[in-house]
Write a structure and sequence with these properties.
478 residues, alpha+beta, BirA Bifunctional Protein, domain 2, Translation Initiation Factor IF3, 3 domains, eleven-stranded mixed sheet, five-stranded mixed sheet, 14 helices, 23 strands, 35% helix, RNA-binding
RNA sequence: CGGGGUGUAGCGCAGAUGGUAGCGCGCUUGGUUCGGGACCAAGAGGCCGGGAGUUCAAGUCUCCCCACUCCGACCA
């Protein structure tokens, strides 16, 4: 069978990247469409990826002293309106509950687009003393934002995420928390999802509604577009003032605490797909793959094959590796194609000839390499192979990122570089909104972030020629 | 919200100038196969996206909705 024949169900990414993405999402059985636009069904395989991300993040949050809570899904309109910038940011995409049973409600209720206001309202009741601080809260939930156009994972009206909300006695401590949580996201992305990130500061224009500072990690997709993969916000004491959250400090003075929030959503799964996937389908980083190893018996009708394969599967599973075996009567070719499509990092083939030689064949999803592994060493060697796949994915993604960052000294040049290569274009920038708008208008790029790792590319802003304040990254974003 | 595309079996599609619905894959059952998407046979499965019209007759013509999808603007 010709090699290109087996991918007939998935559109090549070079032909149509958006279609390729949708194909992978559905063919790998990650999502299904529901009856409501923008509300996607996460199927078991897709949800399992989210559960693995949850497990990693939740562990990190708790390690750092955070506690999980559950806030209501409904926000009274009056509560939402307490912070002006925040309402303005979210009002256009709120969905409202106006009727309960058959009764028109006296005050309409917003289905949470994010929960800052709920946390603030709660805190205004329970925070009294410096001894109550810090509040280190997190919740796993879904939120609703009435988006115009929707895509699986990348933009849903309802999506799953976690939102961390913390409250601190001092600005310094809150700022530290903000950056610490950004680093948690970077850790997740780089060390578990094999997605290299650029850490940085959002511009005034791009920052979160109501925030003083928004920090972001930006990833680069296979098509060289940017994906904002996690954000962390420092709020100052603005919300605290609006919601009248006060505490008595050690010096017996009434003070407003400082607040942060940070979120990471199922959008990140879209990032995994677009970072690692290929024309055969999904490619999952071993650390979050629901199935890390699939055992495929070859010529399984032959005497003893299924027994041997099952024993191998049991041994792998017992070693703590997430493993499946496929003894269905589908053909070998079908099974190979199937697990490639689903992105299983390692396929272990075991047939009569292998059994004779006392080996099995491990096949890497990321590069197709076939590695003979002695049967009696398989359990010891597979974790190392999984690590190699994990590293291989990261290296490939890192190369893609590094090779698609270009420096420009004018909008014209930035536009040209973007058109020719895509990716991030770095320039010097004066810090003015007008220049940001000009870049969007003339080159179609938004600012991605002002990276923490600054370089001096020149003295003047690439847009207006005035003295530059920062180096900034531009790109086309999802 | 603007512009384009598409809605017919689970999926992918055919169904010129109107005449009561078909193909491929998948599914079920039985058999033969089996080291990269196997084959044969017999089956099951449709309010032709929805609603109004025109007509003796509408998947097909007209109008209005709706959904999905792509490209913009907005956003995690």
């Amino acid at each position: 069978m010709a090699k290109d024949k087996k991918v007939e169900q998935i559109t090549d990414m070079e032909v149509d990247f958006a279609q390729w993405f949708t194909d992978v999402c559905t063919k790998a059985e990650l999502v299904d469409y529901s009856g409501v636009k923008g509300c996607f069904i996460l199927r078991p395989y897709g949800y399992a990826i989210w559960e693995n991300i949850q497990q990693v993040l939740d562990g990190m949050f708790k390690r750092d002293g955070h506690e999980n809570v559950s806030m209501p899904m409904l926000i009274p309109e009056s509560l939402l309106q307490k912070e002006k910038d925040h309402v303005e940011g979210f009002a256009p995409e709120c969905a409202w509950v106006t009727v309960g049973g058959s009764e028109e409600l006296p005050e309409r209720l917003c289905i949470r687009p994010t929960s800052e206001t709920l946390f603030c309202d709660h805190w205004s009741h329970v925070v009294h003393s410096w001894r109550d601080l810090p509040m280190l809260y997190n919740q796993w939930c879904s939120v609703l934002r009435w988006e115009k156009t929707t895509r699986p994972f990348l933009r849903g009206r309802e999506f799953l995420w976690q939102e961390g909300h913390t409250l601190h006695a001092t600005e310094e401590e809150a700022r530290k928390e903000t950056l610490q949580q950004l680093e948690v996201y970077a850790d997740l992305c780089e060390n578990y999802l094999a997605m290299p990130v650029i850490r940085g500061n959002k511009t005034e224009k791009e920052k979160f509604a109501g925030a003083v500072n928004t920090y972001t990690i930006e990833c680069m997709m296979h098509d060289h577009k940017a994906l904002q993969s996690g954000t962390s916000h420092f709020f100052g004491d603005g919300f605290a003032r609006q919601f009248d959250i006060t505490f008595t400090d050690k010096d017996n003075k009434q003070k407003y605490p400082f607040q942060t929030s940070w979120g990471l959503s199922t959008r990140t799964i879209g990032g995994i797909i677009m970072t690692h996937g290929d024309n055969n389908g999904l490619v999952l980083p071993p650390r979050i793959a629901p199935v890390q190893v699939v055992v495929v018996p070859v010529a399984q009708h032959k005497e003893g094959v299924i027994e041997k394969a099952t024993a191998l599967y049991e041994a792998i599973k017992a070693a703590g590796i997430r493993c499946r075996i496929d003894v269905s009567d589908n053909s070998l070719g079908w099974k190979c194609a199937q697990y490639e499509m689903k992105g299983v990092p390692l396929r272990v083939e075991l047939g009569p000839k292998d059994i004779e030689k006392g080996v099995c064949m491990a096949v890497r999803r990321d590069n197709g390499e076939k590695i003979p592994v002695a049967l009696d060493q398989a359990v010891e060697l597979l974790p190392g192979l999984l690590d190699q796949v994990q590293q291989g994915l990261f290296d490939k993604a890192k190369k893609n990122l590094d090779e698609h960052i270009f420096a420009a000294s004018s909008i014209e040049e930035a536009k040209k570089l973007q058109a020719e290569h895509g990716g991030f274009i770095k320039t010097m920038w004066c810090g003015e909104l007008d220049c940001e708008l000009a870049m969007k208008e003339q080159a179609g790029m938004s600012s991605r972030c002002i990276p923490f790792e600054q370089e001096k590319l020149g003295e003047t802003c690439a847009c207006c020629g005035k003295p530059a304040k920062h180096m900034i990254y531009w790109g086309i974003a999802y």
